[in-house]
Specification:
mainly alpha; 2 helices; 43 residues
C-alpha cells in the first residue's frame, strides 16, 4: 500500500500504539471516502 509506505517513511508509525489496527482503520476510512466520492460522482 502506497499510504503505508509513505507513513513508514515519514515516521508516523512511531506515534501509533497498534500498527495493525491503525492500518485497518486507515483502510476503512479510505474505502469509505472512495465509495462516497463515487456515489456522489455518479448520482
Amino acid at each position: 500500500m502506497i499510504v503505508r509506505r509513505g507513513l513508514s517513511w515519514l515516521g508516523a508509525y512511531s506515534l501509533v500504539w497498534h500498527r495493525g489496527l491503525f492500518d485497518l482503520s486507515l483502510y476503512v476510512l479510505l474505502l469509505g471516502a472512495v465509495s462516497s466520492l463515487t456515489r456522489w460522482y455518479f448520482a
